[in-house]
Structure prediction request, 678 residues.
Amino acid sequence: MRSFLLFGMLMALLLSGVLEATPSLAQEGGSPGYGRPVTDPFVLLKPLSPAWEPLPFSSVRPTGWLKVQIQENLAGFTGHLDSLCPVLVVKDDIYGKDRLTRKVHKKEVGALTDNDAALVQYLWWNSETQSNWWDGFLRSAILVGDSDALAKAEAYVRRILRTQDSDGYLGIYDRDLRYHFRDENGELWSKTTLLRGLLAWYEYSRDPSVLQAVEKATLNVMKGYPPDTSRPFYSIHPNVGGLSHGLVFTDVLETLYRLTGKREYQEYIVFLYRNFSTEVLNEDAQYAKLMDSTYQLKGHGVHTYEHIRALAAAAYASGNPMLDNALDQFLVKVSREINPSGGPAGDEWIGGRPADPTLTGYEYCSLQELLHSYTDLLAKTGHKEWGDKTERLFFNAAQGAVDAQHRCIAYLKTDNSYYMTGPQNGDSTQHHQTRYSYSPVHQDAAVCCVPNAGRIAPYYVASMWMKNGDALAATLLGPSTVRTVYKGDSVCISEHTEYPYGGRVDFVVDKAPGGSFSLCIRMPEWVTRPVISVNGRPDTIEDRFAFMVVRRVWTKGDIVRLDLDPKMEVTHDRKGQPYFTYGPLVLAHPIPSTFTVTKNYPLAGFHDYAYRPDSLLRYVYKGGAYGVFPWAKETAINGGSAQRFPEFQALMTDPVSGRDEQVSLVPMGKTILRQVTF
Ligand SMILES: [Zn+2]
Prediction:
C-alpha cells in the first residue's frame, strides 16, 4: 500500500493544491514523528484522507444497459424474493417480535442440515438474508426511481425504526443475550447488513430520523462492547461465521465518519480490527497471518474478501504504517486467487488453492464483497488498478453468473463452465452439491447469494463517480448521470456510452458550476492511445497517473468525447492458459446446452434450472488468427431494451478431429455454459 499512499498524495498535490490533508512523509517512512519507529500496529497516529471521496448514495444514477439491468432485477429475483421465500424473508420478524432469546434453539433458516447443534450456530442467518436483500432492493428502487418499490422500501425503513429500543438497540437479540456471547453469534453482522441499507436510505431521503437512529444504534454497540475493555470477537471455538462477518461493522463506522466527521467512529474501527486480530479464530485477515509470507489464504472466501476493506478502514483511520503494510501483504495474497473473469476462488472455502478457471469456483456473495472492497480501495488510494479490477469482476464474473433470461443466478460458478447441474462441472462424486445451478432463491444451500446479486449493480453504480476538493472523477465507466455539488454550486454530467460493449464515451455537461473545475476520467489499463476531444476539437489533455484531466470553465452542453478503441487480445492466466479479452471484457465460447426445470415456485415465471451441454468439445488455441465483428449480435434481456454487443471469432483446433475451425466468442457475461481458457 505504501506506493498507493504516495500516489494518493502526489495526485492530491498535483491536481490542485486545494485537496484535503494527505499522509505525512514521516508516517510514510514508518515513523510517527519524534524519531521513534512504530512498533505497535494498532496505535493511533494521524488518520489518512482518501484520494477520492465517495459521493452520497443516489448522486449517481444508472442509464442505458445498467438501468435496464437494475429494472430487470426488480422485475425478477430482487423484486420478488419475499414472495419466493416468505418463510425466511417475511415470516421471521427477527429484528422485532421474533428476536432471539436463550429459549430459541431452532428455526427455519433454509439450510440443508438435520443437525440441531449446527443449526443453533446459524440462527442469525435470516437477518443477513433479509437485510442484504432489503439493501439491494432499496438501492435498486432509488437508482431507477421505481415508485412502487420506493413506497415499499420506505415502509420497511419505518417498520425497522419502530423496532429500536429506547437505549438505541437495533438488532436480533433479546436482553438476555445481547453483547454477552462466548461463541458464534450475529450481533455485529445483523447490524452491519441492516445499517448499511438504512444509511443508503438516509443519503437518498436526507431524513434526519434515519441517521439519528443509526447513530443511536452505533453508540449502543460502543456501550455494549466498550472499546479497549471488551472482546466482541471472542469465541471458545475458532470456526465462526456471523461473528467474524461482524468485522465489517467498519462499513457502518466509515460511512458515519464520512457523514458526521466524529473521530470516535474511526477509533472504534481500529479497536474492532485489533480485537479481531488478537482472538483465536480461523480467519485469514488477522494481522499476524497477513504478515506471515508463507501463510496462504484458506478461509471462507466471503469473509476474507470483505475483510480487505475492514483492514483498509483501520489502516486509514489509524494512519499506522504497520497496518498499511499488512494491507499490502493481504492484497498480494488475494492476487493469487483471482480467475480471468475477476471472480475470486472460494467455493465456499479458499482452501489454500490458487485460482484455477475450471477448479476453483466463486460464490456470488464473494463477488459482491470483493467488488465492494475494490471500490473502497479505489477511493482510498486513487490508484487506477482497483478500477480495472472492479470492472473486470463486474462485467465478467458477476454478469456471467446470471441467467438473465430466467431471472436466476448461480450460487457457485467457474470461469470454464461445462455443466450447471448442481455439482462442480458435472463431478459425479459431489452428491449433495446443489450450488452450481441456477435459482432465484437457492434455499437448499443458503439464501445469501441471491440478495447479494441484487446489491452488486447498485454498488457498482455508486462508485462510478467520486470527487475531491477540486475535481469530479469518472472512476468506473458506464452509462450514468452524476449530480453533485461543487463549491456550493450544483453540477450534473451525463455519461452516454455502451461501454464495455463499445469504446466510445461521451460526457455531456448538463449543469455547469461557476468557475473552472477538473473533470478526471480513469483510463483503463488496456487503453493504449485514447482519442479525446472537447466540443469536437482535439484537446490538450493532461495525463496524470492514468486519470485524464480536462480543466476548464464549463458551460451547459459541453461534450467531452473519448474513443478508447478496445482491441481483441490474447492473454494468459496464472497457469499460462490463453484466453481472449476485448477491453475490460473476457470472451468465452458459448457451449450449446439444454436446460431442465428442477423446481417450480408458486410465483409465475420463477423456476430453478439445470443446464447440460449438448456436446462437449474443448477447443485448443494454438495461435491462430482472430477478429472482431462489431455489433453482429443483438439481444434483448427479458423483453427489455435490446442490448447489442460485438461478436468475435478465433481459429482453434478441435482436439478430436485435429482440424482447425473458426470458433465464435462472445462476452462471457452473456453465457451459461462456456469455455474461457483454451
Ligand atoms: Zn452466498
Notes: Residues 61-73+389-678 form one domain. Confidence is low (pLDDT under 50) at residues 1-33.
